[in-house]
Amino acid sequence: MNRRVVVTGLGVISPLGLNVNESWEGMKAGKSGGCVVTQFDASEYPSKIAAEVKGFIPENYVEPKAVKRYDRFSLFAIAAAREAWKDSGLSIDSIDSTMVGTILGVGIGGLRYLEDSHTSLLEGGPRKLSPFLIPAMISNLAPGNVAIDLGLRGINYTITSACTSGTHAVGEAFRMIRDGLQDVVVTGGSEAAITPLGLGGFGRMKALTTRNEEPEKASRPFDRDRDGFLIGEGAGVLVLEEYEAAKKRGAQIYAEVIGYGFSCDAYHITGQLEGGEGAVQCMNMAIKSAKIPADSIKYVNAHGTSTPLNDPNETLAIKKTFGEYANKGLLVSSTKSMVGHLLGAAGGLEAVVLAKTIKDGVVPPTINLDNPDEGCDLDYVAHEAREVSVDYAMSNSFGFGGTNSTIVFAKV
C-alpha cells in the first residue's frame, strides 16, 4: 500500500523542561540538564551525577490517590503523550479508535518500583508487597497506560531493544501506518532508570562519566576528554498519521517519516562491531528505504553517547555511509550532550528533535566539545545551534546486544 506518514503531534518530558517548547528552547540555547543526583543518596557511587527531570509533579497528570499505581516511566509517558495528542488536534471521538495504536520504546521499565518493592519484601514479607507491583513495573504499561488515558484501541505494545528502543518504536509505527494496518500511532519512548540499581549497574560497567565536579560538562560527545555517558530520564512522544487524512483535516505537519533501517552486529553483548559496519548497514538501509541520495541528508542526530568506543566508531560509520560528503556539508550533533542518555527513551526524544529541526530550520548543538578527539573530525555543530534549512534529517540509535536503528525524516 505504501501510504505516506507524517508527524502531527509532539510531546516531551526532559531534563530541560516539562514540555516540547521548554526542552527545545533549552537545546537551542545549549543548556545542560546535568546535575548531582537528588532522587537518592549517590555519594558512594562512582558516578554521582545524572540528567534528572526536574519539577515533575505526578498529581498534575493522574489523580493523587492513583499515583501509587505508576512507576515514574509510565507517568512520563502519559504526560508526553497527552501533550503530543493535544498538539496533533486529533479527537478520539471523530476517528476509528481501533485504527489508533500506541507503540513505545522502553529499555528497562519500572526499576524504581521493583527496587522499593524488594525492600518491602525483605523487611516485611510478601504481605507488604503492593498489588500494583507487576503492572507498575512491566515495560508495556507505558503504552498501556497511554492507551487507557487517551482511549486508543489499536495496536499496543512496547519495544525493548536497549538504547535503540525508541527509534525502533518510531520505525515500526511508521511501517504500521505505511502498510495500512493503522491510521494513527502514538510512538516514541519513555524511561526512568536513575535509581540505585540503574546508576550502580551502569557504573559497575564503567559506562558512566565520573566527572562529578562538573555535571553540566560531563556529557561531552566526540571530545577527547569524554569518559562515559551521563544517565538521563524522560520521554519523547510523537503522533504519526497517514498523510492524506492529516492534510484533509488541516493538521499542522512537522515532518514526513520516509526511511527506516535496522541491523544487528551479532558481535558482543555491549561492544560495537569494529569499523562500525553494523551502523553502516543500518544507515544505508534507511537511506534506501527513503529513496533519496545520501547527500540530500543535511543533518544527522548522532547516537553520540560520550563513551570512548561509540563516538569514533559512529564517526567512522558516518564517513563510510556518506563518503566525501560527510566532511563537505553534512551536519552532525549529539543532543545527549545536553539531556544525557535517556536509554530506551533516547530515540523517541531524538525523533522529536528531528521533527523540530526540520520544522524550525535550526540544528541543535553538541555542547562541551572543546577538543575533538582523534578521528572525530566531522562538523558536530559545536557549542552553538545553527540556523539552516533542513529538507532531510537522520537519527541513529545503537544498543547493547548489537542492535541498531536509523530513521529518516523529510520536510513536507
Tag the structure with descriptive keywords:
ten-stranded mixed sheet; alpha/beta; two-stranded antiparallel sheet; 412 residues; single chain; Peroxisomal Thiolase, Chain A, domain 1; 12 helices; 2 domains
Describe the structure.
The protein is of the alpha/beta class. The protein folds into two domains: 5-248, Thiolase/Chalcone synthase (Peroxisomal Thiolase, Chain A, domain 1); 261-410, 3-Layer(aba) Sandwich (Peroxisomal Thiolase, Chain A, domain 1), CATH 3.40.47. It has twelve helices and 14 strands. A ten-stranded mixed β-sheet has the order 5-4-6-7-1-8-14-13-9-10, with helices on both faces. Strands 2-3 form a two-stranded antiparallel ribbon.
Question: Concise description?
Answer:
Helices cover 32% and strands 19% of the residues. The mean pLDDT is 97.
